[in-house]
């Protein structure tokens, strides 16, 4: 079942996937080519999640950013249709912690921002394994559930490029490219429309809230907590009490 159109932008005539989407060129989850390599970008922690400085404070904010990335990567690695996870970051602490979970970490080259980092990560995957199916996944999904991610990635198999919009329906949390397609990432701010106009197909599944729930603000963190935080973020979230828990209206 597809989501109902949420606004005029849904009328743009672009195909949207439905839960009934048949599997595309990938046969089954056990087919090695049916599993995805995920590229997860992460800013240096001292700079990350700046919009959480208000509710979290500058001591906890980088530790929250790391916890979000740990929960994101751990859930991704537990997803049955994920083959491997490549994290693109220059942060030394995050590199150690995310490698310990099983991710491969590559430096943030060419140091030209988020989309350049994602393109670099995708190239790195395909240099090692030409024809890999690749997907970019934001590192700020602390409620991410492996089963929901699997449903999204299975739906994405039918399209050369596909994406999932964020909970606000403005940005993007996931962008995919099957083996014969380039990723061509256009993340940042209002990227939903940018990805639509680039020809990527919007995935419109219901019941995949954890994949759409990125956390930029205190209110986003409350919403993620409602869905159920992963263990790393849950531990940090408990510390928010002493620092002024995020409250409705806090940016
Ligand atoms: N490697 C890399 N990752 C980036 C870069 N810019 C953003 N990201 C990551 O891209 C994802 C989406 O970015 P945002 O949601 O804006 O996260 P953020 O930049 O930490 O948040 P703000 O400081 O509030 O803008 C997050 O996983 C970021 O860590 C970059 O220049 N290089
Ligand atoms: C990176 C994005 O947005 P934000 O910085 O708002 O999370 C995006 O949705 O493409």
From TrEMBL:
<comment type="pathway">
    <text>Cofactor biosynthesis; coenzyme F420 biosynthesis.</text>
</comment>
<comment type="similarity">
    <text>Belongs to the CofC family.</text>
</comment>
<dbReference type="InterPro" id="IPR029044">
    <property type="entry name" value="Nucleotide-diphossugar_trans"/>
</dbReference>
<keyword id="KW-0808">Transferase</keyword>
<keyword id="KW-0548">Nucleotidyltransferase</keyword>
<feature type="compositionally biased region" description="Basic and acidic residues">
    <location>
        <begin position="13"/>
        <end position="25"/>
    </location>
</feature>
<feature type="domain" description="MobA-like NTP transferase">
    <location>
        <begin position="73"/>
        <end position="167"/>
    </location>
</feature>
<dbReference type="Pfam" id="PF12804">
    <property type="entry name" value="NTP_transf_3"/>
</dbReference>
<comment type="function">
    <text>Guanylyltransferase that catalyzes the activation of phosphoenolpyruvate (PEP) as enolpyruvoyl-2-diphospho-5'-guanosine, via the condensation of PEP with GTP. It is involved in the biosynthesis of coenzyme F420, a hydride carrier cofactor.</text>
</comment>
<feature type="binding site">
    <location>
        <position position="188"/>
    </location>
    <ligand>
        <name>phosphoenolpyruvate</name>
    </ligand>
</feature>
<feature type="binding site">
    <location>
        <position position="191"/>
    </location>
    <ligand>
        <name>phosphoenolpyruvate</name>
    </ligand>
</feature>
<dbReference type="GO" id="GO:0016779">
    <property type="term" value="F:nucleotidyltransferase activity"/>
</dbReference>
<keyword id="KW-0342">GTP-binding</keyword>
<keyword id="KW-0547">Nucleotide-binding</keyword>
<protein>
    <recommendedName>
        <fullName>Phosphoenolpyruvate guanylyltransferase</fullName>
        <ecNumber>2.7.7.105</ecNumber>
    </recommendedName>
</protein>
<feature type="region of interest" description="Disordered">
    <location>
        <begin position="1"/>
        <end position="30"/>
    </location>
</feature>
<dbReference type="InterPro" id="IPR002835">
    <property type="entry name" value="CofC"/>
</dbReference>
<dbReference type="InterPro" id="IPR025877">
    <property type="entry name" value="MobA-like_NTP_Trfase"/>
</dbReference>
<feature type="binding site">
    <location>
        <position position="172"/>
    </location>
    <ligand>
        <name>phosphoenolpyruvate</name>
    </ligand>
</feature>
